[in-house]
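Model: You mentioned two targets. I'll fold them one after the other.
Researcher: Yes, keep them separate.
Model: Target one:
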Amino acid sequence: MSFALGPLLFLTPLALLALLGLQLLWFVLRATPPQPKDQTLPSFALFEDMEPIEETPDKTPWWIIALRMLVITLAIIGLSTPVWSPRQNAEDAVFDRDVLLIVDDGWTAAPNWSAIQNAALGTLGSIDRDLGVYVIGSTQTDLTDALADRLSPQNARGVVQAMRPNGWRPDYETLAENLSDLEANSFDIVWVSDNQLGEGFEALSSQLTRIGSVDAIPVTGNDLIGITGVATSANGPILSLARTQDEIQLQLSITAYDDTGASLATARGAFEAGATTTELRFDVPESIQTGMSWFRLNGQNSAGAVWQWDGAGRMRRVGLVGEGQTLQPLLSDAYYVRNALSPFATIVEGTLDELMEEELNVLILTDVGELSDSAEERLSLWVEEGGVLVRFAGPRMAAQSDDLLPVRLRRASRALDSALSWDTPQELTSFSETGPFARLSTTRDQVMIRRQVLAQPDPQLASRTWARLADGTPLVTSETLGRGRVTLFHVTAGPEWSALPLAGVFVEMMRYATLPARELAAAGATTETSLAPRRWLSGFGDFVTPAANARPLQIEPGMTPRADAAHPAGLYQGGTLTLTLNASAGWTPEAVTDWPNGVTVRSTGELSTTRLGGFFLTLALLLLLIDLIVSLVIAGRLRFGREAGVTIMLLCAGTVLPDHADAQNRTGREQSEPRDEVMQAALTLRFAYVITDDATANTKAESGLRGLSMMLYRRTTVEPDEPIGLNLAEDPLNLFPFIMLVMPEGGMSLSEEESTALGQYLRNGGALLIDTTSGSGIGTQTDERLTNLLNGLDVPPLMQASEDHVLSRAFYLLDGFYGRYPGRPLWIESGAGTQRDERRGDGVSTLFITDADMASAWAVDEVGRPLYSVDGGNRNRELAFRTGINIVMYILTGNYKEDQVHLPALLERLGESDDDLPGRGRDQNRNPRDLTPGGDR
């Protein structure tokens, strides 16, 4: 039961009954006098023998009684759990029924997940603790447990806080069906929505209004962006993107990765103002295209920002062998094959022997009748190891053929339009439901076949047929051989025998015919195929391991699967098939602009609640301390003077200073730190970052160094204090062994004072890490922002740190240098770590430059939770921390790892040689310098 006074709601109203006892407390306090003063005077000794006279002490001053009454009143109000809830009013004061709390938890909610959680938690704060709450995620398909678990508002908070967005969209249709068994007008309903229309939205809205009163809270703070599709071009893949907000121009970048998670290339583009769709194009060499496996939209943390590239769309390397072709281009079979493959393949032409030496995915033979025994054996072995062989028929194959075919052929060809045949040309009418052409359509083009080679009848002929003519004869047949496949088109690759090469469907047929065996599309190669999940995508766009009880994905003929609760977005494999499910495939953003009748739309601010119990109890405690001070003064135990001043100052420091510190933290250290705080670095080890005009870069640098400091504290003997921001021109830099500069988005330049101070810092042995955060590759002259920054600074020659540099083994053994982007180059001083020079006595580099965005990978909040997503997930974040630890250990300890080479000589100098062992003499005449290789001292 709860009680409301306008927007002020009391969740424990029975505690307010204690206010009725205030009148009794008033009389008790009046009857209790203040403690009398003790006063000792020498003249009082004259009255020691006199009888004492009882005196009634004076009454307690009324203002002290009022102060104590106020303390008790505030404490009672605080214990009644007051909540400030602007939603409450005279007409709709409280929930009077159990509450169904529905939270949209699909991938479309990920960008605004914090706001969605806060809206749900704010709603729970305004629910009477005696009422029940049922928390339901809109992606749930089974509500048995959710509807059976009646929670208190306090317990429901834990459920909401533990919720995370999932890698599929809400299934409103199924949710509406599962709620159909609930009685009408049995609940109050709050729907925290991501404000995106989905299938079954109207059905769910209708069902909810039947069940009870509905309050909808649409959350639309951050822009939602998703990758909706990928197309292939000769220069690289083209990604289509969509977004929900179109008010401003928005710059974008997408990074491509291979199967191991290594980044390959980055494409940049933009949404123009007023546009909700755009395309980003990669312009990369063919060798890089073939390795691309998946893409991530940088700066977006949702499953829709990740696209896994299935085999049908990838660029492939195809070898084309043409035998006996005419010199007329339009009469050449190779001409039509090249045109069909050009959108998605790189074609290499040559003889069979030449092409077998190339690294190819596919080989195409046009009208090669009979292969030699050695060539057939070599090709068979290549196919069994995973190659795809595509063959076209022709006059030579009709006359004679070898055994490297999916079916046995009849001798001679079948002429359908000759003068000696009664048959008329046959039309391509159907594709097998069990083959990869099942998703293609034959209705858009009328494909007539005039001549073909025929297959011998065989019990397995039907299962090997991918395309048929009107009379049922096979046009395309295929058979798996080892890990590869052999496919035969029973017509020529040119228009001599059919109109197939002139039809648009020929391009799509070639796309799937050249697909590697493990990357067949969902049409599959059998009537029904079971694919096991290999990895899933979370709602935030991270790859996760599938649950132990995950169900396999059943692929049926003609089925186009999509991500759902049973099969989240991710990678599925089984037998010879590989299938990718992308959360945002075909997604079209559509905001809810017109909510159905019966749904009351509330804003997040309108439904937000603030618990005031702590405020009232704190205020009561403060007034109680004031009452204590006043009582001590009246009793003579505390005099106005130094003691009272010190007490009051301590009380003020306890209440004011924490707020001041918090205010300093909230500013993101945009202002330079007080000088005394900087000087404290002389007493403790602290890392620093350069304060720039970009608040985002400052926050990233501070949180990144905080995370790195935490990890150093846990894993090493280095125990840094909290990082601090520096003004290069004003603050002393030599107190800090390591300074980080996160490059602002628009770059920065140094003033003459800043360049002088930074140059002196580097010459004195300080270390500076510059992170451009671009993730797109840098050199000493390729980044204009970096050039502007280093202009006027005495920068030594730079080189790229190799994998065997001491930096890769200073603490951890690393095979590269990592940040938010994996495997990025790290530039250091040329010769650092390999020789001693005058810049620094131990040969350690003082300058480090990277574009890996290390600060984002290290960044954590005050409790150690990561703040930014990292390409490659938690494994790459761990490698980024190890890279940071190695850099710090390298800076603090120098080349001690390299010095191990000279350890035997150093021990000899100290007299710790084998000659010092008991029973052995010592050569007093040996020169210690002679023991060092090359006489090195």
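Model: Target two:
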Amino acid sequence: MSFALGQRWISDTETDLGLGTLVAIDGRMITMLFPSNGENRMYASEDAPITRVLFNVGDTVSSHEGWKMQVEEVIEQQGLITYVGIRQDTGESGTLRETFLDNFLTFNQPQERLFAGQIDRMKRFSLRYQALNHQHQQQKNELRGLVGGRVSLLPHQLHIAREVGRRRAPRVLLADEVGLGKTIEAGMIIHQQLLSGQSKRVLLLVPESLQHQWLIEMMRRFNLFFSIFDEERCIEALHDSDTPFDTEQLVLCSIEFFKKKRRRFEQALESEWDLLVIDEAHHLEWSEQQASREYQIAEALAEQTSGVLLLTATPEQLGHQSHFARLRLLDPERFYDYQAFVEQEQQFQTVANIATELLTEQQLGKEAAGQLLTLLDNPEATAAITLVSQAGEQSEAREQASRLLLDQLNDRHGTSRILFRNTRAGLSGFQTRHLNSYPLPLPEQYQTALRVAKMMSATQNQQDKLTQGLNPEKIFQQFEGDSASWCNFDPRVQQVLDLLLEDRERKVLLICSEAETALTISEALRVKEAIRCAVFHEDMSLIERDKAAAYFAQQEGGAQILLCSEIGSEGRNFQFAHHLVMFDLPLNPDLLEQRIGRLDRIGQTQPIQIHVPYLSGTSQETLLRWYHEGLGAFEQCCSTGSLIHAQVADALIEQLSAVAADEEAMQTLNQQTANLNQELKSKMEQGRDRLLELNSAGGQNARELSEAIATLDDDPTLANFTLRLYDEIGINQDDKGENQVVIKPGSHLLFPAYPSLPQDGTTITFERDTALSHEDVQFVSWEHPLIRNGLDLVLSHEFGTTSVALLKNPAIPAGSILLELIYVVEPVADSRLHRFLPATPIRLLLDKHGNNIGPQLSFDAFDCQLTPINRHLGGKLVKASQPVIHQLISGGEPVAAEQMQQLVEAAKQEMLNEFDHEEQRLQALKKINPSIRDNELEILLEEKQELLKMIEQTHLKMDAIRFVVSTPE
């Protein structure tokens, strides 16, 4: 480099400093002053990361006084440049010494940076082009919003999520049975709605006890960061807005909060929401005579929110009228009268019966065929009905005809557009459950403690009696104080220890009612046999819980047993374990099912062994027998448990509170429970809507969807691109083993910060199974913020926008030049437009005559033939060929503009075709299916016009440029 005082340079690493002036040369060091902010920088003169600012004839230069001049002549004297040209403000001839150039001058356009000598590494140019293509592919991907969740690829969940998530303003009731994943379905729907731009503001309304569970589930599984709003948060938010709920996009509230704080509820109504999600919707009571306060709150919010999701595992728990009322929340115009709804349900049952007959794969009866002809009055359906009505063996053609009829029934009849319900009876993939019970003697210490407690409390209430019988260790500890010696004599602890020692590789989950009990047992196991234990309870922080779960999931050197308080049965997935110990039993059948549900999930690979040690002759034995002999709750999913418990609760509590067991009364209670259980299950089976279940499960289409996502998971492109991206921008990577990588900002990070990446780093994996078994590890997909933010960082900065390289190809004469231009078709920044017209790269590879040879030579094939050169030599090559480069850029832009117009027209046609088809479909369906809402059509037409205007506003932007010179072989 040749230096002279007064020269203007620009920093290659800190372009935001503007133009620098060389103010001192001291031996091997130079000092640069950046007048835009008054900062100085000292550089080694041999290898300073700076580029000389030089303009050429035809360029426009700016004076620090604000006027501009088009350069006609460049004069160099004693190392300094003087520009001669015509001033744009006066039209007169003028001169401008480089010392007086605009201090705030920056080079943002690729061609400006290239001519100014700001040349990037060739790897970064390639990485930028790859980033553009990956961004384009993901925005256009039909699976967008479904692949990024830390969830198993269960077909029924994916089907519901896609079916509902793609709708405009979806209003549905998700009513899958307990354990089938309503929360996950809701999360995937929310994720899709946000990524697609259909929704921007979401209000999540849940019972107060479930707020943190939802917060964690949305964050851990979908990287959705909701904010819990209580009174304290609302007061704090009022500093920023008169309406506190306007300060966040994703809001989580309890329905109890709105019930207690009327003003906050009114403020929530004043905010605009795109999507309202209400969990435990069966608590919204309604009758024709009266509606509960909770229902009124939900109704007011639902009236002004375009999208509504209601979640309940028991859609008819509070009666048929309340079920109607929840459907009324979704579509008050459709479900306007309860009696009319009851009459219409009879038609739903007719349709369901026909669906059941079609599913038997037998010849369709005459009555059903006649009903089908009435319901499906179109030529395609008539031909299919004729085929399935004929006698003969099942054939592929007949199977396709049945499928067509079922699809049309799904689309046109019943409540399947607004109600989704999957049951275990309609799904497969569950392992068997086995009860292992261990009768154990009641220790003398407990007998003494119970006698003393009885004498001290002559007027005990039933709750005290229940506690004494079900948890005698609590009574003993009340007398003993802080000491926890009960673990030394309680035979249940030894039984757990024996189970662990039987097989040291066995992973065991233990659940008990309280955190203190879990901690005490854990300490005893460590002291007695040095068992590796992890504990999980409600007093731990989220990070501590994650670490405990990760320690348990670790195969080598991890905890053999995880001891949980009751919170351990909420929301966590431990299906890699097959052994569950219930140290005590909950009184609520739903809690029992939740505990077992941590292991009994679709995807569990082994039969589930349920271990229940109990003290003989106590209420522990009574409760165990009621669950097992009456409900069959240990070895079968108990969907009727809460309903039956409500009916027999008094008799059960009486037995549990008794001083001595009454065998006859116990057998009577268990038999009554078993009869009720069988009766309710028979009613449920008779009332199964096979058409509804078929539509909810998704059938073959759902399985194909799951397989498509699994194929995408197996593609190594994401991992290869991500690790290369992190290398280039300065993120350190450390292979942790077990498909895990620890990433952390390096000391030479290119950007001031990397969003979503903590300063102390995080652990990531690209493997879904690894993420599912290690909840402290982030599951990285194309939808993860770490990837989306990385793409945004690269594409929103000058990273890789210029490059100069040498080409060694014997087919191209030495000295030939090629110019690679990357343009981007940029639509309006609205996510709804992405699936029709995402930001699309256009690549041109121009020879010196302006011919585009890009179609004959792909980017990858061209890139691998190139050799990088340093930026100083690159700058000289660019300077020598600047007139030709200008000419090629001018000739390339019309070619790129023509390609852009073709993309715009194709996108417009695709959008119109889809919207017109959907409009025609909804218009036709509305004639026979009143569940199609008027505003559903209005929203469709309104969005169609909005997108049409947006497509017309698309423009073309040059994004990157690479200059290539061929050299001899």
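Researcher: Noted. Anything on target two?
Model: The chain has a mean pLDDT of 86.
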